[in-house]
Amino acid sequence: MKKLITFLILLFAVSAYSGTLLQIQESIIAKKRGVASCDTSNIIFWYRCESDDFTATSGTLDYSVGDKAGTTNGGIAFNTDAVKYGTNGMDVPTGADFIYFAPISATLDDEGRLGFWVYINTWVENAEFSWIAYDDASNLAKLFMSGADELGLTWEDSGTERTTLVTSNANLSTGTWYFIEVAWKTSTDLREIYVNGTECTYSAGEGATIASFAGDVIRTYFGETAGENSDYYMDNIIISTDSTDDLYTTCKDELEWPE
Fold this sequence. Notes:
Largest sheet: 9 strands, antiparallel
Structural class: mainly beta
CATH topology of the largest domain: Jelly Rolls
Radius of gyration: 22 Å
CATH class of the largest domain: Mainly Beta
C-alpha cells in the first residue's frame, strides 16, 4: 500500500512538473508570436482608449511621445461596452463626438501608418473615423465611411479636396470588430488602406499626387467631427512613423506597451 501511495505521489509530481513546463513553453511561443515580434521603435503613439488622459496611465496602458493628454468633445465616453482589449474602449455615439491630441509629431508629415480596432454599430456614409491636421484644420488627411460598406481616404489642401482613395472590397459590416490600417508616404504618393491585414483594392484615387503639406501635425482626431449620426467603438489605436510597419500581424493585440 505504501508503495502504491509513493507511486501515486511521484506520478502527481511528474504530471505537475510537465504541466508547468508546458505552460512555460506556451508562454514562450506566445511571446514569439505576439509580444516579442512587435517592433516598437517607430511607434510614437499608442492609445488603448482607457481614458482621455495619458498622464494617468503613462507607460502601462497608453503611450505617446511627450505623454500627450487628449481633449474630448461631445458625448464620447470610455467604457466596457466599447472594449476590445484592456478595461475600457472608446465609445463614439451619434453626433460630433471625438477626441483629439495636439501635437503629435512633425515626422508624420511625409510618412506614417495608423492602425486601430473598430466595431461599427450604425453605418453612416461620410462619417469619419479619424483625421490628421497639418498646420491648420484646412490641411488634412481624413479616413471615413464610404458608400454602404467601403472606406475612403481624403487629402485636403486649404479646405479643397485634393484627392480621395476609395476601396472596392472592404465590405465592412456592423456588429463586427475590424483592424483597419492606413499607410501613407507623400514623397512617393503612397496611400494604402488595410482591413485585417489585407490591403484593399480601390475603385478610385490610385495614382494621384499627394504632395507633402510640409508642416507639423498640429492635431490628430479620432471619432466623428462632422456630426454624422454614426455609432461605433474604437480601441488600441497605434501610429508609426514607418509606412511599412505591419501593425495587424505584430502589434494589434500587443500587451506590452512602449515605455
